[in-house]
Design brief:
By secondary structure, the protein is an all-beta fold. Helix content is 0%, strand content 52%.
Length: 82
Amino acid sequence: MKRAVSLFAAGAWPAEAAADRITLSWDDRHRRRLRLTADGGTEFLLDLPQAAVLGDGDGLQLEDGGWIAVRAAPEDLTEVTA
């Protein structure tokens, strides 16, 4: 199984090189180690050295040099004003 071992912020990795993408809700984007299946079917183990918040547009680098793009899932928001 492929392993994602590094996280790069949006704009700090070659997004055009992404082999697949993973779409996660807010609650699912704070992780360190978890088996995931990307939108295109790529199975991989997220295996970061420490827990991190995966932001929309971030990139996960695989051990073999490949990339998985992180996307935020659409979610309902509540607007509060004073």
